[in-house]
Amino acid sequence: MKKKSFMVLMTAIILFCGCGGNDEELTPKPEPKTDPEPETPTTTISEEIQLADQFAYDVLSDIYLWVAEIRKDLPKLDKKTCEDPIQTVYDIRYKGDKEADKWTMLTNDMAAMEGSSQGIETTYGFVPAIYKFSNYDAYFAIIEYVYKNSPAAKAGMKRGDIIMKLNGNDITASNYMDLYYSSNAEFGMAVFDKAENMIKPNGERYNLKAEEIYEDPVLLDSVYVFNGKKVGYLAYAAFDLLSANKLIEVSKKFKSEGIKELILDLRYNGGGYVSTEELLGSLIAPKSVVVGNEIFHTEIWNQGYMDYWKEKGEDLNTYFGVDHSITTDGKNSESVDITDANMNLSKIYAIITGGSASASEGVLVALNPYMDIDLVGEQSHGKYCTGVMLAPKHVYNNPPSKISNWGIYVMRSTFADRDGNNISRPNGLTPDLKVEDDPFDGYQLGDVRETMLAAALKRAGKVDATEKVMTRGGYERPHFKEIPFQHRKTFGMSIATPKSDMIIKR
Fold this sequence. Notes:
The chain is built from 14 helices and 25 strands. It is α+β, with helices and mostly antiparallel strands. The longest helix is centred in the N-terminal third of the chain and has 14 residues, at 47-60. The protein is globular. Strands 1, 2, 14, 15, 16, 21, 22 and 25 form an eight-stranded mixed beta sheet that branches. The chain has helices at residues 47-60, 67-70, 85-92, 110-117, 151-155, 178-181, 244-257, 274-284, 287-291, 303-312, 359-367, 392-395, 451-459, 464-470, and strands spanning 13-17, 105-107, 120-123, 126-132, 139-146, 162-166, 169-170, 184-193, 198-209, 211-214, 218-226, 229-236, 261-265, 272-273, 295-301, 318-319, 323-327, 333-337, 347-352, 372-377, 385-390, 407-416, 433-434, 481-483, 494-496. Helix 7 (244-257) packs parallel to helix 8 (274-284), helix 8 runs parallel beside helix 11 (359-367) and helix 13 packs across helix 14 (464-470). The protein has a domain at 120-214: PDZ domain (Pdz3 Domain, Roll), CATH 2.30.42.10. Residues 1-32, 466-474 and 494-506 have low confidence and may be disordered.
């Protein structure tokens, strides 16, 4: 039994994530290894854990971007002594002075991670931000947006609604995760009293049952007309596969209506598939860039693999283009020509926050050399390297059945624009105009009075709606302590399928 190369990835999933590279000489391409065989443990380590230890070791010792820096720590994954490979991978991943790997991880539930990346979730369908009350030890949640056709949408819940009680109880550190992952719940609602700057119960209750739904990331598309020009607005929450057709439809709509500029709202977009990222970039970019197949991203791997690619003459760049492969069901693909959908824009306004990560940052990095991008909002998350999600079936010719649902998400390369620059590195994209997202403001996404859209419209030359927002009743954004939480399991991941000819056989 021979171990497959980690680049035999025709079925593997590749993800972008924030990391950096190194120039230290690595030992490229070790000799083939046999598939892992469990040894008689010296402790009570199970066969499953031993195999998981070996799996993590085999991947990290080969493809990991910082393998040289962590090589001394790899023996901690010794299957004779390592009882917790998940924690060990977390402990030994790279931690540098300026950059650190915060994303490489081992999982024993690969299926759940892959399902989430497709946009299919069992959910109530609302996305909340969690805050802590300032005067007592409890939390509340405010809804940032609601997915179409979800249980929450059918019940009438919307952006700005406040949840104060969960099944009749206070929301606390011990139960707030039920807002995301429970199967049914009663939500006790509240309102924000602007005059008193207080959250108060209003007596409303929603009884919801979670359903498996497709979370359509195209939240809203609209066109605004002012100062003799038309400006499109697209609120987009994830670069999933199933949204590709919808993006093409929206782009054709914008093009037919003659928009001259676009407001691209990525404030809640934590990443997704690179194929969809490249599609959106090609729909937006100047036509000459797309038809000319200009460089979208450049890429750098660890030194061992860079030497290998150079020897093979492989092109590590990706490109804008009119030909794209899309899917309508997440499995079967078809080729489409987007020439008639390209908007041929030279100016966009991008709304970003700390919730904008990976593919959201990646598409802006790619577009930056070719057009004028005005960034409005808050500092983005900061993801600038590529990771690959591997299961044992991608690594071994005969994968052990006992770890069939294990997987590892491992950093393997960095990405940058055509000139080798990445404006999101290392701490994310910095806005040209700082504006905080404010779901307390009382307006829905797409409303010209909504705080961040109003700011973007003002940058585009529309002032009347912004003036109304800034002067409404002396309103000031409330200050509560937000509790950080990553709603989607794949937050920060940009998922791509590699070229079929990029294979190392060992």
